[in-house]
Specification:
- By secondary structure, the chain is α+β, with helices and mostly antiparallel strands.
- Helix content is about 35%, strand content about 35%.
- A 5-stranded antiparallel beta sheet has the order 1-5-4-3-2, with helices on both faces.
- A hairpin with a 4-residue loop joins strand 4 and strand 5 (about 90-100).
- Keywords: Signal.
Length: about 100
């Protein structure tokens, strides 16, 4: 029984490490600033984004009740940053960027 529990704990390690952290205050300020400058968001599919971009942090405020969730991504090839917005009310995704930090 101990070996079984040990195996379960070992198998769960990679999944717990893959969670996206919440943004710091400086990263949140960067996201909000860049969104104000963004003029033309593009719709996207989350599965395609995961192939090209590395998620850095997320902004989600459950108290706001607006259904919006933000993700800050970094392009692995060009080191440009992108902001993804998920609208939980209608299920749409939009991408803003590229931005420099």
């Amino acid at each position: 029984m101990r070996k079984f529990i040990f195996l379960l704990a070992i198998m769960a390690l990679p999944f717990s490490a893959s969670a996206i952290e919440n943004c710091t205050e400086s990263e949140e300020g960067l996201v909000r600033n860049k969104l104000d400058l963004s003029k033309n968001p593009t719709p996207y599919t989350p599965f395609k984004v995961a192939q090209h971009y590395q998620p850095i942090c997320k902004i989600h405020t459950p108290e706001m009740m607006d259904g919006l969730s933000y993700l800050l991504y970094k392009d692995t090839n060009s080191n440009a940053y992108f902001v993804s917005i998920y609208n939980g009310l209608d299920g749409s995704y939009t991408m803003h960027g590229p931005f420099s930090k």
